[in-house]
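User: For my dataset I need records formatted as: sequence, then C-alpha cells, nothing else. Please produce one.
Assistant:
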Amino acid sequence: MKGVGEPPPPLAVGPHHCYIVCREAAARVRSHISPGPYRSLRELSLAGSVDPDIWCPPTFVGNSGIECSNGVSGFALLYSLICLPNLFSSRKRKRLPSDRMPDLPATPSKGKLRAAALAARDKLSGRQRTAAAAALAARGLPVEITAGTVVAGYSPIRNEIDPAPLMQSLALRGARLALPAVPARGKSLAFRAWSPQDRLMLGPLGIPEPSPAAAELVPDIILVPLAAFDRLGHRIGYGAGHYDHTLAHLRKSKPVTTIGLAFAAQEIEAIPALQHDVALDYVLTETKLFDFRGS
C-alpha cells in the first residue's frame, strides 16, 4: 500500500493516455472550484495566492480547496497544464496562406516621384531645352484657336520647358495671352493679360508675373507646368495645389481645357492620384501629344 507522501507512478505521455488524464484532472479541478461568483476583481486579474499556501493561475476564480502539487488533485492539475501544451505542440501545424502576408511592391511617394522626374529634367542640356521649346511651337495645340481665345501660359522656373515660343505663335493666330499671378498657398490663381512685349514683375513667390494693373482674364485654355506626368493624365506639381484649386474653381462656370507642357523625360509609369487631384486633358512634349480625354 502506498504511503501518503509517496508520489504516483510515472505516467505515459501518449496522446490517448494524456486525454484520459486531462479529463480526470478537469473533473477533479471542477469539484474543487466554488460554483458561486468570484469574491473580488483581484482574484480575476492578479497572479498570486488565493490561499497563503496555494498558488493559482492569474485567471483562477474559486475557493482554496485545491490540494498542493504532491496531492492527487494537485498533481492532476499540474499534469494537465504540462501535458496539454506538449500534446498540441508535438503535432506539426500546417502553415496557412494567411499566416504570412505576401510581399507587396512599395508604392513610391509623390515626393520621390517628383524628385526622380526633376532629376531627369535637370540633366537636359541647354541645347536640348531650346530645341524642345521650338518643337512645341512647331507642333501647336491640339485644339482650335480662334480670334479672342484666351490662352494662359506660365513663366518657366526650375528648368521647366519654356512656353514662350508656343505662346508667341498662338498670338499670331489671334489668341489673347495671359499669365498667372500666384496668391497665397492653397488659393486660386488669377490670370492677367500679357503680351510678349510687356515687362513682368516678381510676384510674392519670386515668379515673374504681369503687373496688378493688367486686365484679369478668364482662360479658355491653360498651359500647365508640371514636374511629372503619367499616361492617365495625372500630374505632379510642386505640392502647393494652385492649379487643382484653380481648375476646380474655374470649371464651375465654364469648360476649361488643360494642356500640360513637359519634356518627354518627365513621363513616369504611374502617379498615385488623390481625390482632389485634377487630371489633364492633354500633355504636349517635344516628341509626342498625349490625349487623355477618353481616360
